[in-house]
Amino acid sequence: MNLKKLKEKAGKITGEYIALQLYDVADYEKYKLYRIVASSTSLEGSTLNDIDTQILLDDGIVSAGKPLEHHLMVKDNYEAILYAIQNAHSRAMLSPELLCTLNGMNMKTTGQVVNTALGTIDARTGTYRITPAYSIALGYYMSAEKIPETVKSFCKIYSEKMQETDPVQLLQNSFEAHANLIMIHPWYDGNKRTARLVMNYMQEYGGLPLTRVHKSEMETYISSLKEYKDNDKIDPLIAFMFSQHIKTLEDEINQYKGQKKSNDLSCKVSAKLMQAKGKVKKTCRNTSKRANPKDGSAESSRRKSEI
Questions:
Q1: What is the full DSSP assignment across 156-182?
Q2: Nearest to 226 by CA among 207, 244, 240, 245
Q3: What is the CATH number of the domain that holds 113?
Q4: How far is CA 177 from CA 16, 41, 172, in A?
Q5: Predicted pLDDT at 286
Q6: In this structure, is residue 81 part of a structural domain?
Q7: Domain containing 89: what range?
Q8: What is residue 104's predicted lDDT score, i.e. its pLDDT?
Q9: Which residue numbers in the chain have pLDDT < 50?
Q10: What pLDDT was estimated at residue 105?
Q11: Is-contact 225 138, C-beta < 8 A?
Q12: pLDDT for 90-146, tens place per residue?
């Protein structure tokens, strides 16, 4: 499906999703965030699935056989997304301070102290990197000395784009912001997690449903990021992100409709049981009436029995 059709479909399904008013369903918002956290952290190596994440965040129970670091990563990312949502609701603009705070919260218990020839950086504080960065997936990133001014410019540009009123364009702006923050790569760790938080932050600010990047699509996700970084072609990444948004909402809508259908079926079964119970009671009352001692036939039967 080409980008134009994906955008049309995303706009349509976003409207359908909003019309369902799922935010009125008890605990829906909480479990929606759990799924986003499970997905985002799994993209960075966590082995916790949706159920593991729910048990951890609801009950504080760790999943047997899974690394403690993965549990800590999930807890940190959940606290960070809650903070992002809170700031979106308070209508805060993007700022270098907000971005660094989100990254620091992401790395709170799994970040490390990085010792370099230029100094020591505590990755748990959201401090910018001061040395070159390289990853196997995407290669070398922006020079460290350019980061502070580039992040300031990034925040100014996308704070303005957050004022967009067209839902589909606002979604695209959030996808672009996510991609560009990854390209800047301001920190030693947690860059993609933080970039996805910024994407969700912009979506929440605009009153839109949040996009979940699915682990099953990780290969396409990384390859589209690489295409953007190497060849300056962002359309494949934008198309991919719209497809992820559509998939996220289709899953949510289908789950809701499936649950509603199950509830409707339960109500019908209960109604039939109550109806059947009513018929049994009516039959019992009729039987009781026929056996009334005042009834002549019943009295006659009794007398014959006594003889």
A1: HHHHHHTT---HHHHHHHHHHHHHHHH
A2: 240
A3: 1.10.3290.10
A4: 25, 19, 9
A5: 57
A6: yes
A7: 3-259
A8: 98
A9: 284, 291, 293-307
A10: 98
A11: yes
A12: 999 999 999 999 999 999 999 999 999 999 999 999 999 999 999 999 999 999 999
* Rounded (5°) CA angle 147-150-155: 120
Structure tokens at 68: 């403690």
Cα–Cα distance measured from residue 76 to residue 54, given in angstroms and rounded to the nearest whole number: 14
Q: What is the pTM of this model?
A: 0.84
Structural tokens at position 38:
């499970």
Q: How far apart are CA 156 and CA 177, in angstroms?
A: 11
**Is residue 135 situated within a structural domain?**
yes
Query: CB pairs under 8 A, 24+ apart, for 205-208?
Result: 205/88, 205/91, 205/162, 206/162, 206/164, 206/167, 206/170, 206/174, 208/14, 208/167, 208/170, 208/171, 208/174
The CA-atom distances, in angstroms, between 95 and each of 98, 151, 216, 300 are: 5, 8, 32, 96
Domain count, the chain: 1
Q: Does 293 fall in a domain?
A: no
